C-alpha cells in the first residue's frame, strides 16, 4: 500500500465512504500534505466508488483545496478591499523579496508557497495573512521578516 | 423606540455571561416550545446574515416539519468582505451561539446541530470544541438530546448561501439549488434543515434571556433589537460595534469616520456604496437589513480601485453555474478596465449598469443578484473617477 492509499484508507475509516465524506477526506489530505494531486483523487474516487472527474469537480471548486504542489507552509495574503487600503501591496512585495518567489510560486526547498486569498474576516486588523491555518494581523514589512525567520527556524 | 438622531449603543450580545447562556436554555425549556417560538416571532428578530427573514417564522415552519431526522445549521461561513462579527462572536461569546442553536433544536424537535465554519477560521476549532464539551455536560444534565458538531468549509464565498452550503456539506460543488423546495422542507441529505447565521442564534438566545418585550424596545418600529456592525476602513475605531438599529449614516460617520469620509459601503461588497451627499438616510432602510458590514472610505481613496477590487472578487467567487453571473461579473470587470484605459467611450458605463441590472433579474442566487448594488451606486455617484 502506498502512502497515499494508506492515508485515504485511514480517512475513509474515520469519515465513512459516503458522498458526504468527500470534503472531510479532501481536507484530511490537505492537512497532511497541503495539496491534493490527480493521483490522490483517483485513489479517493476508487475508495468512494465515484468517478475521478466528480472528485476533481469538487476539489477544484474550493480555493483551500489546491491541486498543484504546495510548500510545507502555504501563505495566503488577503487581497480584499480594506487590507488593500492598508498596504497589502507593500506586504506582498516584502514577502516576495524575502522568499525570492513571485505570487503563486513555491520556494525551491518546498518550504513556502505564496498565494492571495479573498477576505479573511480580519478587516479591522489588516493587512492580514494566513500561514497554513494561523492568522497574522497588522502586518508591516518588518513583522513579515520576523514571522518568516520564526518559520525558517521552525520555531512555529 | 426609534431614535433617529443619535447613535445608541446596545450592550446585549457582547455583555458578559451575567446569566449562563445554558441556564437561558434551561429557562426556555421550562416555558414550552410554542411559547418560545411565539416569543421569538413577537420580538421581530430577523436573520442577521443579510437576507433578513423573520427568525421566529422560520423556527415555526421548522417545528411543523414531521421528520425524525432534522438539522440545525449555524452558518459561520462569513465570507463577505468587510464582515468579521461572527468571528468575534465565536471567539468572545460562543456559549450564546451554541445555546441559541440548542434552543432552536429543542423548540423544533431537531437533534443534530452543525456549525459550518469557513476554512479561514479553522484556528478557532480547538476553542469551539472545548465549548461544545461544556455544552454536552449541560445537555446530559438537562436530559436534552441535541448534539453539536463542527463542519469545516474549504474557501468558497458562495457557500454562505444556504443551499450552496448544504451542497458543500453533502460533498458536492457549492452551487446554489433552485428554491423551492426550501431547506426547511428538504435540506441537508433531503431532511428538514434550519440554517441561521451565527449572530441570529446569539440574538435568539438573548430574546429568551430578556423576553420579547425588552428586546423589541431596542431599535426602530421595523428593525428590532441590537445589530452588530463590523467596521473597517478609514476609521480610528475599527472593530465590531453593537448598536441599536435606526441610526442615520451621518451620525455613524460623525462617530466613526476620520473626519474626511467620502463614502460608506454598507452591507459588504454585496451592499450599497453611499456617497457623502446621501448621508442623511438611515443606515438600514425600513424593511431591509444587512449583515452589518460597514467600510468607510476617505477622500484619498480612488473609487475606481474600490469597484475594481469588488468586481475582481465577484468574478473569482461566482460559482459559474448560471450564465448571467458567470459572464456578467467578468464582463463588468473587463468593462470598467476598458473605460478607464480609454478603449471604450464613457457611455459604455451605462451599458454596464444595464448589464448589472439584468444580472439582478436573471441570476440564480444572491451573489449575482447583488453585484448591481455596489456597482450601480459607485458608477452613478463617482462616475468621473471611473473615467479619468
Short description, anyone?
Chain A has helices spanning 3-15, 22-33, 38-48, 52-59, 81-85, 88-99, 141-152, and strands at residues 73-78, 112-117, 129-131, 134-136.
Overall description:
The complex is a heterodimer of chains A (156) and B (388). Chain A is built from 7 helices and 4 strands; from the N terminus they run ααααβααβββα. Chain A is an alpha+beta fold and 156 residues long. In chain A, β3 and β4 form a beta hairpin. Chain A starts with a helix and ends with a helix. Chain B folds into 2 domains: 21-216, Rossmann fold (3-Layer(aba) Sandwich), CATH 3.40.50.11540; 303-385, de novo design (two linked rop proteins). The interface between A and B is large, with 36 and 51 residues.
Structure characteristics:
heterodimer, A: 156 residues, alpha+beta, Glutaredoxin, elongated, B: 388 residues, alpha/beta, de novo design (two linked rop proteins), 2 domains, 45% helix
Strand adjacency order, main sheet of chain A: 2-1-3-4
The CATH architecture of the largest domain in chain B comes to 3-Layer(aba) Sandwich
The largest sheet of chain B is: 5 strands, mixed
Number of domains of chain A: 2
Shape of chain B: globular
What order do the strands of the largest sheet of chain B run in, or round the barrel if closed?
A: 6-5-9-7-8
Calculate the terminal CA-CA distance of chain B, rounded to whole Å: 46 Å
- State the secondary-structure class of chain B: alpha/beta
Query: Which percent range describes the beta-strand content of chain B?
Result: 5-15%
What's the SSE blueprint?
The complex is a heterodimer of chains A (156) and B (388).
Chain A lengths: L2 H13 L6 H12 L4 H11 L3 H8 L13 E6 L2 H5 L2 H12 L12 E6 L11 E3 L2 E3 L4 H12 L4
Parallel strand pairs in A: 1-2
Antiparallel strand pairs in A: 1-3, 3-4
Chain B lengths: L20 H11 L1 H11 L11 H10 L6 E6 L8 H8 L1 H14 L4 E6 L7 H18 L4 E6 L9 H8 L23 E5 H13 L1 H5 L9 E8 L5 E6 L4 H8 L4 E6 L5 E4 L17 E6 L4 H15 L5 H19 L6 H15 L3 H16 L1 H5 L1
